[in-house]
Structures are given as C-alpha cells and as structure tokens.
TrEMBL record:
Pfam families on file: DBD_Tnp_Mut, MULE, PB1, SWIM
Phylogenetic lineage: Eukaryota, Viridiplantae, Streptophyta, Embryophyta, Tracheophyta
Keyword Oxidoreductase recorded: no
Alphabetical list of PROSITE patterns matching this protein: ZF_SWIM (PS50966)
Hydrolase listed as a keyword: no
UniProt entry keywords in alphabetical sequence: Metal-binding, Zinc, Zinc-finger
Residue stretches making up the SWIM-type domain: 623-655
Organism: Prunus armeniaca (Apricot)
Protein name: SWIM-type domain-containing protein
C-alpha cells in the first residue's frame, strides 16, 4: 500500500491573533508548500524548511493544529510526531504548519515541552488584542505547481472592512479581468495574472487542481464551493481560452469582498511600472503605497522582496545573466577589436571572475596617460554579491581614466593576483609604473611578482585608517586627532626635515605610535622618501567618479552592470574629446591654472645667476634649482611634474619658456591622444540572437555568495576628519567610562 502523501503549507514570519470565538488565526509572514508522507523523517523535513526560509534547522520549532481545532497548537519534536500529524489528517490533502525559532516560540508560548503532548491553548499562546477582530487568513496559497499545489507564496493577508471603500477602489478595476467562457489570453502567465487580480477584487481564495503547459483547472479553496474555471490552449494557435467556468460561490468569501491576499509576484507586477520610472523606489514607500491603495500591510522585508521581483521582471534574470557571460565577452571583442574580455569559472561551473579592458582605454593609457595606476575595490550589493576591482589612471587634466575593471566572487589575494596578471597582459608597457594601492589584500606581494618594473606607493587613506584603529582605546579623541593630522603632514612633507618634525610631534604624544609610523615603510608613502612618480596623489580612491557609476548600476544583472559602466566610460571619452577640441592653451585647464599661480609667486623671488645649470633662488627660503635635471630643492617640481615658482623665476631671468619644462602628460596634445580612440556600443547584451554565439554550450551559473534578504548592511568607516569623542573619566582620566561608573570610586 502506497504511503499517504500530504502537502504541508509551511508558514513563517507571521503572528497568531485571537478571534472572537477564541480560535487562533495566523497572519502575515510567507509560506511554502512541501510534500511529505508517513515515511518522511523530521530531520529531512526541517532541512527542507530551513533552505526555504533561510533559517537554522537546529533552532527551529514546528507546530500545527489538529483538524477542526484552531485553539490548540501541537509541537512536532520527533519523527513519530510528524507521522501522527499525517495520520490525524484523514482524507485531508493539506495541513498548515507553523515554523518559528525556539526563541520566538518561548516568547509567545510559555511552558511548552518539546513533545506531542505539548499543547498550547489560546490563553497561553497569544496576548489577546484589545478589540478582537475576525481575521480572514489566506496563507495556504503557496506555489504554482501541478496537482493541488497552491498559488504563489503569500506575503500577507489582511482584514478588509466593508467601510474601507478607499482600499477597494484600486481593486475594483480588476472585477472584470475574468469575464467568462471564450475569453482569450496570450499566455498562461497572462491568464494566471488575470485570475489572481480577479480573486483579489472578489475576495476569495483558490487553488490549482491542474496546472501544466496545456491546461489549467482552478477551484475555489472553500470546501464544497462549486466555483471553478478551466482554461486550455486554443487548437492550432498559441492563445489560451477559458472553456468552462462555474461563477457561483456558496462560500462566505464570495459575499465578503474584503479578504485581500498579496504575493511577492503580485506586488511586483503592481509596482513594476513605477519602478521603471523611479529606480530608487524605496521598500518603505512601496509598503505605504500598497497599504494606502489596497489596504494590505507589508513589512520592509516583504516590500523589498517584491521590489526584487519587479526589478528582475524589468531587467531580466540575474541567473541567466551569468550564463550570457561567454557570449558577452565575444560581443565586446567583436564590437571593440583589441579589447581584452575574459572570464573564469570554478569546477562546478559557478562564476569566479570577469575582466575587461577596452581597446580605447589601453591605447589612451599608452599614448597620453602618466604611468600611474590607482588600484581599489568596492563591494557589490547585487543579488549574488561579489566585489568589483578597478585600475584607474589619471588623464592630463587629473580626470579619472578607467583602464580596466573586474568582477570577482570575493576580494582575495588570489583574485587580486589574477587581476594584475590580466592587467599586465592588456597594458603591456615597458616603462616603470607607479601603483597607488592598499598594502593589504596581498597586493604588496602580487605587485612585485607580476610587474617587474613598478613602484608600490601605499594608499595614505588606508594607512591612516589603520593607525586610527590601532590608536583607538588608548588615547583620547584630541590626542588621536593630533597624531592623525601629524601623520598626514609627515606624508605630504616634501623634505626630510619637515617629515621628521611631524614624526617627532607624534613621538611627543606616543612613542609607540611613532614606532608604528617609522616601521610602516615611509619610503612607500612619504613624499620625502618616495621614489615613485605619484604626482602628489596620495590615496587609491582617486576614481571616486567611477565608483559612483558602480553604485548606480551594482543592483543590475552582471552583464547589464558591466554594460552600464562601458556606456558611462564611452560617454566620458566622447565628451572629453569634444571638449578638448575647444581648448586653445598649451596645457590642460587645471595644469594651466596651476602654472599661472606659480608664475605669479615667481615674480617676487630673487635669482642669483651662476655658471652652468644650477641657480640660487631667494624668497622666504633659499632654494637651489637645477634646470638641466628638472630639479628644485623645494621638491615641488619633482612631485607635481610642473615647474615650481623657483624654477619659473629662473626661466624668466634667463629667458626660457616654462612650458618647455612641463611634463608632456599635461599638454593638450597628449590629452587629445588619450581620448583619440572611441569605445563602441555592444548590442544585444540581454539576449543573444539564435545561433549568434559559438559558446552556447558553455554554462556559467551564479556564485554561491547570494545576498541574504533585507536591507544590505553597510559598515560605515570612522571618519578621519571628525574623530568621535571618546568617553573619558574625569576622576581617574581613564578612557571608556565616566565618573559614575569608575571602578576607583
């Protein structure tokens, strides 16, 4: 004899409320359908539920009502309890199962040992509301499958009142979405959507009796109610037609048009058009609008999930986008010849990493940019998370120049090493490159291994954050602020004497902090020691504009996000090329302005002539200028690539042109060479045409790093400009407590 099968409607995230007759109703939350039988083990049942609700099976409490008894909850704590539940049901095909954490169960239910005999009455389980109301609950419509499985996952069911006309107005337009026999639809999806709206407008719940690619049979969920509808494909066409329909309702639901039910898919379809117009439509605003227009209360998580569904309907499948990466790489290289676009997967075919550097970027960097690259990363809060790694250069006007970027599953030493290998392959320049990057994430080792001729300048921002973190708890906010300011002063100091003065200031506050500064490798971050040509750029977050583009597109499917970044870069290249054609100066605007400022200062300086190329210049200080080696003792010429005021004073004295001594990277000619090439559009990003890709057999699945539901948690780094005041005891002068809690009192 075959084991009896039952569909368990597992519900979680809601709460129990008391009705007038003392029975319990479960409202809110979400539900999933699970097939069980008399042979199902509790451990397997819990594991399946845990996967659905993204919760822990170990801390899960499962309860259910006996048939016909809505006042007593029974706990399932072992295999026999689960088997008894199936036996208790008799001929009933479904059972409502309520899932909660043990902590939540302890809060709502007192004195409930984990056994079959553990029963909870209404008085134990629920704190009665002041004015009990009769809540119509429809959490049994769970998922769209075949043979008696239920409609979509309900987010919430709410009470409607016959006086709540304003909540009904929005649904009145749906009363005739189903008109009767011979009504036709373009697809089963369109039919199901119309049916769902029809049920909301008429206030009844339904279930699928048959639901496949050829026919759909739906009946009213209320037992004994004759309402039903049958639709199937119209012969020789792709249209769906209603063949039979019994419009009579004998259940209470047909008379009371108040029982609204909302699914994530339904809410998503409602907000889809508004989301298209307002991409920043917030979950809170979604919940407020649905409450106002339909009388349905959504919590933040439910509204957020609905927004995710609507976004996917508008933008396409996040999962399918990963599978399109092989085709996407092909299209980039076809439309932008000379570009580098590659991806890798793991052994299980899941996405690992993607790299792209467009031909226009490669040529522009080689022809007109300084050999200076900023390496940084930013997290992606898309459905499958990940991290974007970027290599940003600087053009002759100190604008960002996106050279290459990658999307990886996580920020690891291995992924950074791979990114640098791909970058070297794309750029392939012979001159020494200066990198401004964090000292962490394995970059220090990888840079020296991958680039033979390079100089690694540490990012000052990352170093200052680490210093501030190490000092926290040891010093007051004033002391930390002084030390951080002195650290920055030491980094920017052009001469050894100025560096040492700032370092000594730190030593005066804390010898330990001074040792930290000296041992952190000043030759990699201090101007007084640095050998790399960083042009006075001290931090790796130079490309903030590029990262703002990422923040605007990071929630898109991966191929669309990459294409948005391509489009932004394409527009920037074009606008800068057009703009530079209007320039009439020899240097770019920002560099021309700086040179003019130095020229103004030079007029007040005194030059002492001598033989050869070395000159003495007097002003507030005495500096030595060597025009043959482009050197000045103030270090300003070497650090910026532009003649300092002392050098300009010499040029004016001996009749030479200061423009001849400016770095070639700052000329308008070099700037135009930087943006001479164009980035071209990549058509058909979303959906390749049939037979268009030779890599159709290559499968790429999403990475396992899927984002948990809800608002992404953003960790705010402590500002270095405004260090928060730390609590200090006025009695013992200790940190972290006040006089009242001082242990010395």
């Amino acid at each position: 004899m075959a084991a009896k099968k039952v569909i368990a409607i597992c519900q979680s995230g809601g709460e129990f409320v008391t009705n007038k007759d003392g029975s319990l109703s479960y409202t809110g939350g979400e539900a999933y359908a699970v097939d069980i039988d008399q042979q199902t083990l509790l451990g397997d049942f819990k594991s399946e539920i845990a996967d659905m609700f993204n919760c822990s099976a170990e801390t899960m409490s499962i309860k259910y009502f006996l048939p016909g008894n809505k006042k007593t909850l029974i706990t399932i704590s072992k295999d026999k309890d689960l088997q008894r539940m199936v036996n208790f049901l008799g001929d009933t095909a479904t059972v409502d199962v309520f899932v909660m954490s043990e902590e939540a169960a302890a809060r709502n239910v007192s004195n409930m040992p984990a056994s079959r005999s553990s029963r909870t009455t209404v008085s134990e389980a629920v704190v009665p509301i002041v004015e009990p109301i009769d809540v119509r609950v429809d959490t049994c419509n769970a998922i769209d499958q075949i043979d008696m499985e239920l409609h979509e996952t309900p987010l919430v069911s709410v009470l409607g009142s016959s006086s709540d006309d304003k909540h009904h107005k929005a649904a009145q337009q749906w009363e005739n979405t189903i008109t009767g026999v011979d009504q036709r639809f373009n697809s089963f999806g369109e039919f199901r959507e119309a049916l769902h709206k029809f049920s909301i407008a008429h206030g009844f719940a339904y279930r699928y009796k048959k639901n496949d690619s050829h026919r759909v049979t739906v009946k009213c969920k209320s037992q004994g109610c004759p309402w039903r509808i049958y639709a199937s494909r119209l012969s020789t066409t792709q249209l769906i037609c209603i063949k039979k329909m019994n419009t009579d309702h004998t259940c209470e639901g047909a008379a009371v048009k108040a029982g609204y039910r909302a699914t994530r898919g339904w809410v998503g379809s409602i907000i889809k058009e508004k989301l298209k117009v307002s991409p920043n439509y917030k979950p809170k605003d979604i919940a407020d609008d649905i409450k106002r227009e339909y009388g349905i209360q959504l919590n933040y998580s439910q509204a957020w999930r609905a927004k995710e569904i609507a976004r996917e309907q508008l933008q396409g499948s996040y999962k399918e986008a990963y599978n399109q990466l092989p085709y996407f790489c092909e299209r980039i290289k076809e439309t932008n010849p000379g570009s580098v676009a590659t991806f890798t997967t793991k052994e299980d075919s899941s996405f690992h990493r993607f790299f792209v550097s467009f031909h226009a970027s490669i040529v522009g960097f080689r022809e007109g940019c300084r050999p200076l690259i900023f390496l940084d990363s930013t997290p992606l809060n898309s459905k499958y998370q990940g991290v974007l790694l970027a290599a940003i250069a600087a053009d002759g006007d100190d604008g960002i120049f996106p050279l290459a970027f990658a999307v990886v599953d996580a920020e690891t030493d291995d992924n950074w090493h791979w990114f640098l290998l791909e970058l070297k392959s794309a750029v392939s320049v012979s001159q020494q490159i200066t990198f401004v990057a964090d000292v962490q994430n394995g970059l220090k080792k990888s840079l020296t291994e991958v680039f033979d001729k390079c100089y690694h300048c540490y990012c000052l921002r990352h170093l200052a954050e680490k210093l501030n973190k190490d000092l926290k708890g040891q010093f007051s906010h004033e002391a930390r602020r002084f030390m951080i300011n002195d650290f920055y002063a030491a980094a920017y100091a052009p001469k050894l004497e100025a560096f040492q003065r700032s370092a000594d200031n730190i030593k005066g506050i804390s010898p330990e902090a001074y040792n930290w500064v000296i041992q952190s490798g000043p030759e990699h971050w201090a101007n007084a020691f640095s050998g790399g040509a960083r042009y006075n750029h001290m931090t790796s977050n130079f490309g903030q504009q590029f990262y703002s583009w990422v923040s605007e597109a990071h929630e898109l499917p991966i191929t669309q996000m990459i294409d948005v970044l391509r489009g932004k870069t394409m527009e920037a290249f074009y606008s800068r090329r057009v703009e530079s054609n209007q320039w009439v100066t020899r240097l770019t605007p920002s560099k021309e302005e700086k040179l003019q400022k130095e020229t103004t200062i030079a007029r007040s300086l005194q030059v002492l002539l001598s033989q050869g190329s070395t000159f003495e210049v007097r002003g507030e200080s005495v500096d030595i200028v060597d025009i043959d080696h482009w050197d000045c003792s103030c270090k300003g010429w070497q650090l910026t690539g532009l003649p300092c005021c002392h050098a300009i004073a010499v040029f004016e004295c001996i009749g030479r042109n200061p423009y001849d001594y400016c770095s070639r990277y700052f000329t308008v000619e070099s700037y135009r060479s930087t943006y001479a090439e164009s980035i071209h559009p990549v058509p058909n990003v979303d959906r390749p045409l049939p037979g268009e890709s030779s890599l159709a057999s290559v499968t790429v699945t999403p990475p396992p790093t899927r984002r948990p539901p809800g608002r992404p948690k953003m960790k705010q780094a402590e500002s270095l400009d405004i260090i928060k005041r730390q609590l200090q005891c006025s009695k013992c002068k200790g940190l972290g407590h006040n006089k009242k809690t001082c242990k010395d009192s």
